[in-house]
Amino acid sequence: MWFVTLAALPAQATAQAAVAEVALAALGAHVSQGHEPLTALKLFFRSRLALLLLDNCEHVIAAATELTAALLATCPGLHVLATSRETLRLPGEFVWQVPPLALPALGQETRTRGQLAALAACPAVALFLDRARQRAPALALTAENAGSIVAICRQLDGLPLALELAASRIGILTIGQLAERLGDALSTLTSRERGVSPRQQTMRATLDWSYILLTEAERRCFRALAVFAGSWSLAAAEAISGAGAREEATLAALEGLVEKSLVTLVVRDDAMRYRFLEPVRQYAAMRLAAAGEALVFGARHTIYYLALVAGAEDGMVKPERERWVALLGEEIENIRAVLERCRAQGDVRNGFILASELWRFWMARSWHSEGRRWLGLALAGVALDDPLLPLPRRLAVPFGAAVLAFQQADIATAARLMARVLTLARANDEQYYVAGALMQLGHIALRSAAIAQAHAYYRESLALRRTLGDRWGEGVSLQGLGSALLIGGDAAAALPLLRQALAIQRELADRWSVATTLSWLGRALTEAGDYDAAERSLREGLTLGNAIGSHIAASNCLLVLASHAIRRGELALARGQLAEVLDRTVVNGFWLEVNLCLHGFALLATFVDDHARALRLLGAAETQSGTLQLARLPHTLHTQLRAPQQFARARAALGETASAAAYMVGATRSLEEAVAEALALTIA
Q: What fold characterizes domain 430-545?
């Protein structure tokens, strides 16, 4: 094998002879008198079985290609391995992409010795630790620094050079400090080691080297693509980079960036997507700003994504809902970037319109807190009577904000916003929003234990939906009315309404509504004593909820399934189901479900005679109910399992004084402490 590095050859060296001279010098062969460099190389390799490794070809790509083609044509025993940021494009060339190092999983557990060992074996982590220990030999991977090391590796996208440069800063920066500084990776990733090529001493120098080798069209495209966050489609690249230019020109420039390893391919089943590795994205953003093009390309990015999401709110209640969820999920990082740009630039109207289209998506993905933040900013920036905004958009923002608030048990905010929606919709004869607001006000009344008022809202909403011919709305209104009857204690009357709702929702292929209705149907069947049918509905609802990412529907199915498990004496199964509910709901702020889960753990504790824990959890749950202004509505966990009798038994076992003390301890605990108390319950 013969190794030839072309790194020191100037980019101006375009002649094949210049590359051949470098190769001859590296091989130790001398040009025979009267022979040109290429001829000498042919004579050298003609009778040899050899591998020639040409390293760093990208800056002299044309000359390297010519040399390789000439040698292969006359030297049958020669194979050439060329390293380059773009291919040689020769016949018979086999391209081997060198990907970044594999990354640790986001949120990877690092509490045990085995988990830390698994993390240390991850290629990106292993390289970082190896190089960091050259600076700090005593460095150990611990539960305390593991999170920061994971963040460093992920922020640098597993790029070996970036990881080595980052590790070289250990000794003057702690692991935590290094992780915090990688938002500006180009300044942080430097090395003072001697004997290293100047273009590899800083991340910026390495990228400068690549940028210089681009054509002017590729440079312009590279800068334009810096406005993207995450990945992007070819259509998006053409809209932002190629506005006013032929689509073929953008595709050619993008292809060049991919071939030169500045843009990474993201393979999808239906279409290819593209992305920058993070250090490259930061460099592209720096070049974009320096060229004074950030406003132009940023505006195109905003316009493109406003057009992309147009119709999402309406589409999310139709059969194409799943297509919308998939599309918006793929583009969410770019959508967030546009929302942030609108906020930073004071573009309140475009931010308002974007948020108005997205609230159902945020709900479908259980991203309630994020959705409420953006909807809240939209409401703060625009008056709802602004005539420059279409009325449906003005109604969608407070409507969506109210729904998300309700699902996070912020009943007061939900009621206030939904009342505004109803008033504005009635005043402008927007009957679809009138029907929707009535249904949501029914939910709010039901949560507040105003069951008669809830019935009235649901019935008015149902009648209006039928008048409008709104099948989707008819289904959800039937579900609401059935749930009101169930909460009111009439499971027999609730069942036919819930079955009607389910039939409509199945007809419309609305899996999100189906999952929710199945949770209510399972609960109604449980209350009616038909446990086998209830179990089937709940398991179908759980499977569907998991498939579509509806944590609320899945959690409500699990809560009732836990009551079934307790009734059968399968206490360990019930504990696992309740723990899963907490895992799903705490992080998403679904406080009603968290509260029901705490009640469930308290009840479960009574069945294993852990009476003090039971009363502490009961104190925490009932105090939280008061804090959230949650009415103490009957739930299957309680009605089916004789909760009052069970807690009375716990009090009798402890005695009046100890019972009161345990309850008060729980009542003073934070939510985090109460959740930890619940999860500490063990089942023998």
A: 1.25.40
